[in-house]
Amino acid sequence: MTGNTRGGGAGRRLELDTFMPYRLSVLQQEVSRLIATAYAEKYGLMRNDWRVMAALGDDQPLTANEVCRRTNMDKVQVSRAISRLLNRTLVARTQDTDDRRRWILRLTATGDEIYREVVPAARAREAELLTVLDPAERRQLDGLIDKLYRRANRLLREGG
Amino acid sequence: MTGNTRGGGAGRRLELDTFMPYRLSVLQQEVSRLIATAYAEKYGLMRNDWRVMAALGDDQPLTANEVCRRTNMDKVQVSRAISRLLNRTLVARTQDTDDRRRWILRLTATGDEIYREVVPAARAREAELLTVLDPAERRQLDGLIDKLYRRANRLLREGG
DNA sequence: TCAAAATAGTTGCATATGCAACCAATGACA
DNA sequence: TGTCATTGGTTGCATATGCAACTATTTTGA
Predict the structure, then answer these.
(1) Are B152 and A33 within 8 A, CB to CB?
(2) 3-state secondary structure of A63
(3) Are B115 and B107 in contact (CB under 8 A)?
(4) pLDDT of chain B along its 160 residues, tens only?
């Protein structure tokens, strides 16, 4: 994938290779595949499962709702990931006595073990990826991601 | 989503917000949703359908295989998108007489009409998105996407 | 204090997806 | 020329997904 996004805006053709959202999507897919090598085959986790585990590993315990907020997943995705993780006893839950709609989620010992094995592997993939960027470029990347995310978010909320 | 990816690499926690692949994925999802407003509701297209149409609109005719290469989709995705598009007669195909495994794909008149309506809408969304970046930042973005894509691709090929 | 609105989480359904197996046609080459 | 490998494309199956509807509980407020 090589192209650029300059000159976009008006043409009658889309020219996928110069269409930023397309480029971003292709990049994301590739990066996501790379990271998946840290958890998918070896532990039979899907991305959403891993995300929920990551949220819990970062800060336990959490309710499903808090997991939603921290992972940017919606509640159906989270509910289903949790049910897969409960089946495999990687996560356990107890009902919140203060508000019985809520469930308090924690990694089990096994879940935590997997979390601790996957984190360094995932970070290692990230590090290998980022070796092509110098420190200034990494800062640029962070800044661009933030700016674009906020903008996209804003446009979506305005639009409907 | 605000955070950064500096300082990553070694910690025992993943800290999703500082994990570049996660940040990228969240951004991509949001951007993708934004662009989808240009084709999804109004024309009942899914992303893969739209991608195939975009490839054809950019350069007709193509075989399914060529669509794969240009869109970075795999052949199953393309095959299914095409079958949806054939059902709706947005795309037509004729068998290649030189190699009867191949099908020559073209947008129909209706398909082309939709393509011509969606392209400016999609480009307009992109433009609104990119208003938060100055020209230098846009160039940076292009460069970073290319670098990271090539790197991820390389690591994936090496790894497995 | 009770009905209506809001919130946490789950589920049904129709549809999409990934993977491997598959079919048909072509190409390679002994 | 006949067999084997390759390529273009499709399909079956099990599973994942999006959406809207749903249950159960808590909150609001007249």
Answers:
(1) yes
(2) strand
(3) yes
(4) 555 554 444 568 888 999 999 999 999 999 999 999 999 999 999 999 999 999 999 999 999 999 999 999 999 999 999 999 999 999 999 999 999 999 999 999 999 999 999 999 999 999 999 999 999 999 999 999 999 999 999 999 887 5
Q: What is the DSSP string of chain B?
A: -----TT-SS-SS--GGG-HHHHHHHHHHHHHHHHHTTTHHHH---HHHHHHHHHHHHS--EEHHHHHHHHT--HHHHHHHHHHHHHTTSEEEEE-SSSTT-EEEEE-HHHHHHHHHHHHHHHHHHHHHHTTS-HHHHHHHHHHHHHHHHHHHHHHHHH-
Q: For residue B78, give the nucleotide whose C1' atom is nearest its CA.
A: D9
**How many CB atoms within 10 Å of residue A98?**
6
Both structure tokens of A104: 């308090």
Amino acid at A51: R
Burial class of residue B26, CB neighbours in 10 A (0-12, 13-18, 19+) = buried
Cβ of A83 near strand C (under 7 Å)? The reply is yes
Residue pointed to by tokens 């839950």? A93
Residues 6+ apart with CB under 8 A from B64: B75, B78, B79, B82, B102, B103, B105
Q: Is B68:B62 a contact under the CB 8 Å cutoff?
A: no
pTM (2 decimals)? 0.94
Asked if B146 lies within 8 A of A9 by C-beta distance, the reply is no
Strand partners, A74: none
Cβ pair A32, B25 in contact under 8 A: yes
